[in-house]
Specification:
This protein has 399 residues and is of the alpha+beta class. Helices cover 26% and strands 25% of the residues. It is built from eleven helices and 17 strands. It has helices spanning 4-15, 37-48, 170-174, 177-184, 206-209, 217-220, 222-225, 253-257, 322-349, 372-385, 390-395; strands spanning 53-57, 66-72, 75-81, 87-91, 105-107, 113-114, 121-122, 128-130, 149-155, 158-162, 192-201, 237-240, 244-249, 274-279, 283-287, 293-303, 306-315. The strands form three sheets. The protein has a seven-stranded antiparallel sheet. It has a seven-stranded antiparallel sheet with strand order 11-17-16-15-14-13-12, sandwiched between helices. Strands 6-7-8 form a three-stranded antiparallel sheet, with no helix packed on it. β9 (149-155) and β10 form a beta hairpin. It is globular, with a radius of gyration of 23 Å. The protein starts with a helix and ends with a helix. 38% of the residues are buried.
Length: 399
């Protein structure tokens, strides 16, 4: 039996060991990755400022002048439909004295983006058009004060931005994910956003994404995959690209034959099974048995041990029918609280000095319970941070 001293002596050596490509033998992320301020700071540049990040929905910017403000960690941005009907994104900062330009969402019509501090006015292309008393200022060149533009792209109804000017196209990250959505969800393009919810979490953002496995399902989701009257087979079939995953869990045959055995109402079986998708770095998606439906689950870091979890529910029926509401409520009131409790307890556990890092449970057959999805996500984090280097090992805060 190891003493605490012996366990802590192992920690330095463990930190230098990479998360390897072989999920069957790899160790998981070290505990410090879930709370160290230095790791959080490294993630800003290595992950959040170099990758395509979901910031909003196309439904919010339908017409020229429509806009919404958002943020990527500590970087304020806004997305706007410009007067040429193109989608554009900019840093949300006035080039005069750094005041935030826009808040929330709305429409400017044909009007300018106007700074509320000193009334500098920009067009929807980011060009400064006027500044009070500029004609009286020596050598004031209005063309020098454009708002820096940001790369923007879309997948289905979602808008993504990338703060890295040299980043590859979003299609290289998303791959065939949109085709997967459309294959699983009939009439995907006709879905409407019908409900949102937001949860503040006292834990690191990665703990939410670490749940990309069903090893836990029979134990914390007994209604879904436990013994007795659960509705899902013990299945979690994984298909993975470089930056995305798809998981499929099948309904039990007797439940598929009698949908009244589900713990929520369904009006049809347009979606026949449970689908879960992941897109690097911070998005989960789901579609559940019933009328066509789809859900975005977004986790945003707000600090080393703070995050926000946003839910966006889409239905084919707008307004949603009673069965749609029943299905959404089952996730929000039953399954999500079960996950949330486990995630928050992990957040406490990684702080415990008696834990160093874990081991992925993966068999040779990569069975339904294997933690391949978690490994895939953790490996992306590890590679992005280049955590096997001495620099990263030395930057981890000491306890």
């Amino acid at each position: 039996m190891a003493t605490l001293t012996e366990l802590l002596e192992r920690r330095s050596a463990d930190l230098a060991q990479p998360v390897t490509s072989e999920s069957e033998t790899s160790m998981s992320l070290p505990r410090e990755f879930y709370f160290a301020p230095s790791v959080f700071e490294a993630e800003k540049n290595a992950i959040w400022f170099k990758n395509w990040i979901f910031v909003g929905l196309l439904s919010d910017v339908k017409s020229p002048g429509d806009y919404f403000a958002s943020s990527i960690v500590d970087q304020q941005i806004y997305v706007i439909r410009s007067q040429d009907n193109a989608l554009r994104a900019f840093y949300n900062v006035c080039q005069h004295r750094a005041h935030t330009l826009l808040e929330g969402k709305g429409s400017l019509g044909r009007g300018p983006v106007r700074c509320p501090y000193h009334s500098w006015a920009y067009d929807t292309f980011g060009n400064l058009k006027s500044a009070p008393y500029a004609e009286e200022v020596a050598d004031f060149d209005i063309s020098r004060f454009c708002i820096p533009e940001i790369k923007v792209d879309t997948v289905g109804p979602m808008i993504f931005v990338n703060l890295d000017d040299g980043a590859p196209a979003l299609s290289e990250t998303a791959g065939n994910l949109l085709a997967m959505f459309k294959s699983a969800v009939p009439n995907f393009d006709a879905l409407s956003l019908v409900r949102t919810a937001q949860y503040d979490l006292d834990c690191n953002w990665k703990l939410v994404l670490d749940g990309l496995e069903c090893y836990h399902c029979p134990f914390i989701h007994p209604e879904a995959m436990g013994p007795g009257n659960s509705y899902l087979e013990k299945s979690f079939e994984m298909t993975a690209g470089r930056y995305h995953q798809q998981h499929l869990s099948h309904l039990k045959k007797d439940v598929a034959a009698d949908l009244t055995r589900l713990p929520f109402q369904v009006a049809s079986k347009s979606v026949e099974d449970l689908y879960v998708w992941y897109l690097w770095p911070n998005l989960l998606f789901a579609s559940r048995p019933g009328d066509s439906n789809w859900q975005i689950l977004e986790t945003i870091p707000t600090g080393p041990e703070k995050s926000v979890h946003n839910l966006y529910d889409f239905c084919i029926n707008n307004p949603p029918k009673e069965a749609d509401i029943s299905q959404m409520d089952f996730y929000q009131n039953v399954l999500w609280p079960q996950d949330r409790t486990a995630i928050l307890r992990q957040g406490l556990g990684v702080r415990t000095r008696g834990y160093v890092r874990g081991r992925y449970m993966v068999d040779k057959a990569r069975s339904w319970w294997s933690e391949c999805g978690t490994h895939h996500f953790n490996k992306l984090v590890w590679d992005a941070l280049k955590s096997g280097t001495n620099e990263m090992s030395q930057s981890v805060d000491k306890i």
